[in-house]
Amino acid sequence: MANGGNRPIAPIRKLIAAVLGTLATFIVLFGLGMTSWAIVALGVALLVLAVALGTVRGGGRTWVVGLGHVHSASEPPTQYAFGRCELQLVIDAPGLPPRSKKIIEPRVPVAKWPSLGQALPVRVALNDQRHVRVLWDEVPTHAETAAAAADLPPEYADPDPVDEVLIAQETPPWADRAPDDDFRDDFPPAPDPLLDDVTGLPDEREPVVVHHRPGRPVVLEGQVVEPTSTGPLPRRATPAPRPPAEERFDPVDVPLDDPDAETPPTPEELDEAIFGPAGDEPAEVATPISGVGITLLVTDLDRSLDFYRDLGFAELDRGNGNAVLISGATRLVLRQVTGAAPISRRLVHVNLEVDDIQAAYERLRGSGVRFTYAPRVVNRGSKLEVWAAAFRDPDGHGVALTQWRTLADA
């Protein structure tokens, strides 16, 4: 907070004090010349009042520093470095309710000209919220804002620096392996419980070459540790002969399909075989934007809720001074502010798309909505045209019923 008791005296007070002091001096001299002490006392009193106006400051105000969100701003001059700016701000200060305030700044640098949605540092009087001052010395220029965005540290230049920090971990043992190196021989084998008691196994064994014969196997190279069986190898069983009667079979004539008798497929069957059944719709491709929401500043929340409920919106949520309405995939946020100025239709315009604009127009007109104009074509391209019927909500926001039609349908 800051105290405004040390603020400078207004120039108009200095001018009034100078004029009153000159008049008081003349009255004192006139009273002395006429030896009238009453006139002299009147002149002295006026002189004291003039001195008080020129030197004594008024009672200080208590200020609080907050933010002013730019809702609308006039266009900057193109040929001068300073200009007169008309601002519509939504004041957000600690300890004070949100309030919409229109201020006029007579001398604003073009390099610091505010844009829609920008947050400006402001100073608001606690005892009288009508006194708002923008702290232009603390507002950065457009060049400084661009330079600050360009001077970000290198770690913030990557797309997802926070995710890299959160998932940082030690390198796993298999990180340096080649993709085709799934098995490696440099690791010791797993212990075998069956071989724990066996000691003295030779590291290398001599290969044994055995030639199998019908009588018995013959060792050509090496020495066999385990004795081999000396019995003859088993012979393959000979199948029993089948009687001649069982080997007979009667030939069966199976008619083959005539290729000329097959009917060719229809175009619909070909399309179904290539593209699938007609009822199967292709899966929707995920898009980065799933919907569009609108936020409107209103002066009477209950009145606006009743108005938009009549248009077809349903209340989804409600808080202190705000409400969320929904209709299909569209969400409308209503936020109540006090003292909001009338909204220019060029800045805010809400389009409500309907399937039958004439039926929606007749329904709302019958419920008491006053339309600016009936359904008509407001935009036409090479393939589409837009039909619209416009009206306004209780706070002056421009609203229109719209329907897209192809030129072939029209």
TrEMBL record:
<dbReference type="InterPro" id="IPR051785">
    <property type="entry name" value="MMCE/EMCE_epimerase"/>
</dbReference>
<keyword id="KW-0472">Membrane</keyword>
<keyword id="KW-1133">Transmembrane helix</keyword>
<feature type="compositionally biased region" description="Basic and acidic residues">
    <location>
        <begin position="177"/>
        <end position="187"/>
    </location>
</feature>
<protein>
    <submittedName>
        <fullName>Glyoxalase-like domain-containing protein</fullName>
    </submittedName>
</protein>
<feature type="transmembrane region" description="Helical">
    <location>
        <begin position="12"/>
        <end position="31"/>
    </location>
</feature>
<feature type="region of interest" description="Disordered">
    <location>
        <begin position="172"/>
        <end position="191"/>
    </location>
</feature>
<dbReference type="InterPro" id="IPR029068">
    <property type="entry name" value="Glyas_Bleomycin-R_OHBP_Dase"/>
</dbReference>
<dbReference type="InterPro" id="IPR037523">
    <property type="entry name" value="VOC_core"/>
</dbReference>
<dbReference type="InterPro" id="IPR004360">
    <property type="entry name" value="Glyas_Fos-R_dOase_dom"/>
</dbReference>
<dbReference type="Pfam" id="PF00903">
    <property type="entry name" value="Glyoxalase"/>
</dbReference>
<dbReference type="GO" id="GO:0046491">
    <property type="term" value="P:L-methylmalonyl-CoA metabolic process"/>
</dbReference>
<keyword id="KW-0812">Transmembrane</keyword>
<dbReference type="GO" id="GO:0046872">
    <property type="term" value="F:metal ion binding"/>
</dbReference>
<keyword id="KW-0479">Metal-binding</keyword>
<dbReference type="GO" id="GO:0004493">
    <property type="term" value="F:methylmalonyl-CoA epimerase activity"/>
</dbReference>
<feature type="transmembrane region" description="Helical">
    <location>
        <begin position="37"/>
        <end position="56"/>
    </location>
</feature>
<feature type="region of interest" description="Disordered">
    <location>
        <begin position="225"/>
        <end position="268"/>
    </location>
</feature>
<feature type="domain" description="VOC">
    <location>
        <begin position="290"/>
        <end position="404"/>
    </location>
</feature>
